[in-house]
Amino acid sequence: MTQDELKALVGQAALQYVAPGEVVGVGTGSTVNKFIDALAAIKDSIPGAVSSSEASTARLKALGIPVLEASAVEALSVYIDGADEIDAKGYMVKGGGAALTREKIVAAMSRRFVCIADESKMVPVLGAFPLPVEVIPMAAARLARQFEALGGSARLRIKDGQPLVTDNGQHILDVTGLKISDPLAFESEVNQWPGVVTVGVFAHQKASVCLLGTPGGVRTLT
Ligand code: 5RP
């Protein structure tokens, strides 16, 4: 099975967590795109979705799925999103698609976080994937030095020759060389650094369920 087929498999499997009559939280990325495509088949059974990015909003709308403002919804029963890395406890690194801040907000609104990924995303320790951190541009250089003091190396994410600008008008640092053995403590610490909008460790908002695509089918981790 190709990676694309594994993504489609878990995107389809995530439908079982969508409650009829309830708004669903929708993440961002190529795996979530498969979920959105699958969701279109049952769109008449839900009032709509709260989206974590402009990209997902565009895809949802193109498929006729209403997109609701997060501020118009009190809580969500489920949030479906992908991940860049997942450890055995369900702690994740996210933000490869630069949508981490809104992803964390929608995850926080949701009673259950269902992570969908192909099994290559499972790791023993978080940190091999460059850690995305959304930052206020004026703080980027100072924050890069703070990550260096932790043993990391931070680079500003570039797109089309310019610093990438997120949906929130901010920049992304990608940090390599870290071993995040205590994700809860790491997330709490980095969140306090002035200029950090969101760190891409999802430990306090970890996955409740992971659906992993494997050649043998979907493996469910709880
Ligand atoms: C976007 C994310 C994505 O969920 C993450 O990058 C995984 O993406 P993909 O499903 O394309 O591998 O965090 O900000």
TrEMBL record:
The protein, known as: Ribose-5-phosphate isomerase A
Family that this chain belongs to: Belongs to the ribose 5-phosphate isomerase family.
Active site per the UniProt annotation: 103 (proton acceptor)
CDD domains linked to this entry: RPI_A
Positions annotated to bind substrate: 28-31, 81-84, 94-97, 121
Function recorded in the entry: Catalyzes the reversible conversion of ribose-5-phosphate to ribulose 5-phosphate.
Molecular function, one GO term: ribose-5-phosphate isomerase activity
Keywords on record: Isomerase
InterPro entries xref list: NagB/RpiA_transferase-like, Ribose5P_isomerase_typA_subgr, Ribose5P_isomerase_type_A
Quaternary structure and interacting proteins, as annotated: Homodimer.
Pfam family, one: Rib_5-P_isom_A
Protein EC: 5.3.1.6
Keyword DNA-binding: no
Reactions that this protein is recorded to catalyse: aldehydo-D-ribose 5-phosphate = D-ribulose 5-phosphate
Metabolic or biological pathway: Carbohydrate degradation; pentose phosphate pathway; D-ribose 5-phosphate from D-ribulose 5-phosphate (non-oxidative stage): step 1/1
Organism superkingdom: Bacteria
